Amino acid sequence: MSSWLCYPVRSLAAPFWEDAGAHYAGLGAALGAVVGIVPKDNLTALLLATLLLTLRVNLATAGASALLFAWIGWLFDGQLDLLGAAVLEHERTYPLWNAFFALPWAGWTRLDNTIVAGSFCAGVAFACPVYVAARLIHRWSAEPIDRALRSRAWIRQALGPDFIARGATAPGGGE
Amino acid sequence: MIRWSYLLPRLGVAVVVGGVVLFGTGPALRSFVCSSLRHGLGVDAQVERVRFDAAAGAFVAENVRLASPSSDDAVFVIPKATLDIDASSLTRRRFVVDEVSATGVEASADEILASIGRTRIDLAPPPFAARDLAEALASVELDVATLLRESATYVTGEQIVKEWETRLELLKRRAKLLEARVSLLEKESAELRTNPLRAVDRLATIAKELESVRVESNTLVKELKGLPNQIEADRLRLREAKNADLAKLRAIPEVIKAEPRQIAESLIGEDRLETAKLAYRWALAIRELASPELEPERAEGRNVFFPSLSGEPDLLVRRFACDGTMQSGDDRYPFALVCTNWTPQPRRMTEPLVVDFYVERPLPTRVQAVIDRTTDRPRDTLLVEVRSTQPVRFELGKETAWALAASARQVVCTVHAEVVDDRIEGAAVLRHQGVALDPVGEDSQRSELVAAIGEAVATIDAFDVAIRFEGNREAPKFQFATDLADRLAPAFEKVATERLARRRVQLESQLAGSFDAIEQRVLERVKQRNGEFAALAPKLPSLAELERTVVERISPNLSLPREALKLPNLLRR
Lengths: 175, 573
Prior knowledge:
The structure holds two protein chains of two kinds.
Chain A: H1 2-5, H2 7-13, H3 21-37, H4 43-54, H5 59-75, H6 77-89, H7 93-101, H8 114-150, H9 153-166
Helix pairs in contact in A: 3-4, 3-5, 3-8, 6-8
Chain B: H1 4-40, E1 44-53, E2 58-67, E3 74-86, E4 95-108, H2 109-115, H3 131-140, H4 144-149, H5 152-194, H6 196-250, H7 260-267, H8 270-287, H9 307-310, E5 315-328, E6 331-342, E7 353-359, E8 365-372, E9 379-387, E10 392-396, E11 404-420, E12 423-439, H10 447-457, E13 463-472, E14 477-482, H11 483-511, H12 514-534, H13 543-554, H14 567-571
Parallel strand pairs in B: 4-5
Antiparallel strand pairs in B: 1-2, 2-3, 3-4, 5-6, 6-7, 7-8, 8-9, 9-11, 10-11, 11-12, 12-13, 13-14
Helix pairs in contact in B: 5-6, 5-12, 5-13, 6-12, 7-11, 10-11
């Protein structure tokens, strides 16, 4: 029971002690950004969320990223509208979109809406920078955060034996 | 050997999924149906239950209650409605309903008609134009004495007699004055003979006085010479007056005009007007089925048009069939409605909305409408037919002498209207079939005419009354026309002309010689007055003596017009 309760904490801390933690955290942040910024009442958001849950990414980082980018999307609504209109109505992309919307289920993606299309494009465009940024943040902050985590007994207890065992070999390991 | 460990979980999952589909979709569907009806038709909807009928492959809604947002009373109560959806359309984000059918529907006619407001057909039937006929009849019913007394001949004759009396009286006075002056001169001449000295003094002034007498005498002679010409002029005046009287008499039948438009207006009684109103209102109600263009709600952004996605409507009902009973007050009667190609996004359609509606009472009414909203210019074609179920009775010309008690076995009202944008153009035709027209004659003096009109209208079996309307849809202009007027008008004209011409002949025969008699009487009167004036002649002065004693002796240059002063001779000319 306690293990199940501590899962989110472990998941959030995992990037700082797992071998491939930084990579998964970066992927989670990137996918979370796309999911977060796209409006949720459509098939696009559903597919992105499914993809996020399907892939092996850090869900805690993805969730945090989604929350952050949902707020950012709300802030930049007007710009996203303009971006979506530019993407949808461009003379070169318009026939492609038209062909896309002729496909079954394509209509449910709501990508014909300027906000949805703009936010989706912005999310995809931001995915790579978000991944890189997440990796950089991990590199700079992994060691001090790991040290801080290990310095507290209740955190060690919460994160479990794997965390303690990995401590000696981890990049930021204390022992 | 059955692998229960494999089978049981999967069976469990299948049961759960099936249960969710069968029982769990109801609330979601119910919410969806209510929302769609609210947005699509603008009505408040309540649905007791929605379920999926697997056997029929359709959704079934039970106890649907639709109410107008402005009223708490239900407009429609539908015990059972089935919804056959084209599932393949869902993959393209469209909701296409192949057929919606509702049976046993209970609808409120009062609520439906109240929701569309009242139409503006407020007409007060104007007074019947053929009142002229009654007036014309009244004018010829005058007695001959009155007619003569008011004739121009009589009035002119009286005037001429008065003029002659005045004229002769004046002449008489002037003649007497002249006589007196001559008499005075005679006396003075006798006196002057006895006194020669005074005669010499008098000679200086008497010449002027004699000249004055001579001028007055000449004037009198001229006027007397003009009297025969005056008589001739008066005779001409009398003849002109006589001709005017005869022309007026002959013109009497020509004042009778049966005005078609006004006959039509008088035919639109309250019953017929209500029939036309009902048809018009049902037409407008049906037209309201075409909802305005609606776009799916989206809080933000806008939807870019892509032909592959937005070329067809998001919601389309290919066929909607509904039947049940309609309630108006305590009266219940059946109705049926079939509607094809309904969508809240008609501009994405190529085919217009077609509505066929039938309601049994208050009068059997059928409305067929083609409501085209597929282009920028809304264009509706409406055809409404209302039939009366009982014979219709009405009365024509109530205020005239020849009122007709009319009845029609059936009245069929057909409204054809074309509405483009806000302009409406069309006509309502009220066809009266099996018509019987019976004249009503209360006045014995006119019964002959009423009977004649009865003969004229006996052949009329059917007639139409048309109300043409054109103009703004909210307040069109109405024009009335009827072929009854066209049929009645010649009949009235013929009857009235015949009867009145006969009456005129009678009058003319009664008046024959009357005007001549007036003329004769006037001339006799003039002659009589002339005679009275001629009697004065012997009393005129002795001109011969005057010449001899005064003029010739006293003034050789003075010569009185002796012949001119012989008035009696002149008056006899």
